[in-house]
Design a protein that fits this description.
Layout (H helix, E strand, L loop, with lengths): L1 H16 L1 H7 L17 E8 L2 E9 L3 H6 L11 E6 L5 E5 L8 E6 L5 E8 L7 E7 L1 E6 L2 H5 L6 E3 L1
Length: about 160
């Protein structure tokens, strides 16, 4: 019996010193924040819950005034499940966006302070300087490829989470 206990202790000691056991005890390295290869902006997942279900968008986040002023200007392509988020949570107000120097048609989704879709400026015309406005106080804007909001069934009142 003593031999069996000694063998068990020895086996446990060897397993505890193995590289797998040592790695399992180490805390995981913090995940690197994803950044967009062209803009260098952080990318976050945004989930929009519609009557058709939940849809996740990988959104670049334009936080600073300079990033927001540039937005998606001069971009010639964007993936179907990609977009750009413009957060104004610190100062929600009626917002207006234009398409100056924007090559792609966009859906401009205005989001309320409680993170619901307020209204959608669908298929905003490239290069237009006409203002596409929120229907009230907005705390964020999500831009998607033109027509994508309709494809996904996004409508006013839908929940938006990030």
């Amino acid at each position: 019996m003593i031999r069996f206990i000694s063998a068990a202790v020895l086996a446990f000691s060897i397993a505890a010193c193995s590289p797998q056991a040592a790695e399992a005890d180490r805390p995981a390295a913090p995940a690197q924040a994803a950044t967009h290869s062209e803009s260098g902006l952080a990318i976050i997942p945004i989930t929009i819950t519609t009557t058709r279900g939940a849809h996740t968008i990988r959104a670049e986040v334009a936080r600073t005034p300079a990033e927001q002023a540039r937005g998606l200007m001069f971009r010639t392509a964007m993936g179907a499940n990609e977009g750009m988020l413009f957060p104004y949570e610190d100062n929600p107000h009626v917002l207006g966006f234009w398409m100056r120097n924007t090559v792609l048609p966009l859906d401009i989704i205005f989001i309320t302070p409680d993170r619901r879709v307020l209204n959608i400026g669908a298929n905003a015309v490239p290069y237009s300087e006409a203002s596409v406005r929120s229907a009230g106080v907005a705390a964020a804007v999500l831009e998607l490829n033109g027509g994508r909001a309709a494809e996904l069934g996004i409508a006013p009142g839908d929940q938006v989470a990030w």
